[in-house]
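Contributing: when you submit paired examples, paste them exactly as shown. First protein:
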Amino acid sequence: MEPNNLALLCDPETHEALEFQADALVNVRSGKRYPLQDGIPAFAGNVSGQNKKYQALYDRIAAFYDSSEKLYSWLKRKQDPRRVYLHELDIPSGARILEVSVGTGANLRYLPSDATCFGLDLSWGMLRKCRKNLRKWKRAAELFHGEAEHLPFRDGVFDVVFHVGGINFFNDKAGAIQEMIRVARPGTKIVIVDETEKTVKEQYEKTPLVGKYYRDRAEAVTDPTLLVPADMSEVSCKNILDGKAYCVTFRKP
């Protein structure tokens, strides 16, 4: 991690300042330590509930996630969906961008080269694959291990905040949305994309190896529009990719 980005970080639980100490970021007030693992700050400790369940899934599939995506797109003769939902981003010149649930980093290569990119994910497997991809693409991004419900960033530091895939099964969807709002600057457009119930039911539940993670769910997938706080502006939700996904957008006043 670049030392000059320390000013953007905070303790995800208390929002207090952090400082470097040897191989960790430390909350001096409380003494809480967040270790650096292979240079990536580890902010997610005891993960529980849905987050733990899907952390295990993505750790398991990280190694072949990109290749399976490419194969699916080729078999279905589908265009790259990123060109659809990334078009929703409102990116100023020289923007500081946060992707929550960055996965293997596939979205990052489509972002402007003059942007400063940050990516957070709960899966170490995905983060390691992301870092490998970034080196291959000759792109740069600061990576963090953490939960969307507890972002390790100070208030109002990002020009762009977006999330693709995952929020359907977060422990606390409303809490994650509140955190995305908190770290965004006033005027920022926030974009949230995930699969619809149709996709989960007709595709994910029937996929070998991963289907068991999606079957026997307590409730159907619904878009999180109703969880967007009432004081946000320009709130919109639309189905995209032939109804396979939804795209929720809104702007922080």
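Second protein:
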Amino acid sequence: MFKQSFVDAINDTNLVELTFNSKNQGVLERKCIPLDYGPMAKSSSGEMKYHFHNTDSDHPMPISEEQIIKMQILEEKFDPETIVHWVPSWNIERDWGTVS
């Protein structure tokens, strides 16, 4: 339901405003950087997650489809090279220069 918008935001380097149901804090709204869609690296369940970077707390946020209430693509852009400080192994192809 949200995947195409998420992929578009990745490719266009747009921030998103995410409204989601947090398991611990109820419904939250965060401005996030869309990173990838796929299973968590250290999980054996294989559950597919939307991977975001929370701009407020500088933390990763893996979110399942069921938790997402609303995802709005913002006009505001992000620079992937300021966030990605690891050797990425993306599930979704993108053209992010040296961090693709």
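If you have annotations for the second protein, write them as plain sentences, like these:
The chain has one helix and five strands.
The CA atoms of residues 18 and 90 lie 21 Å apart.
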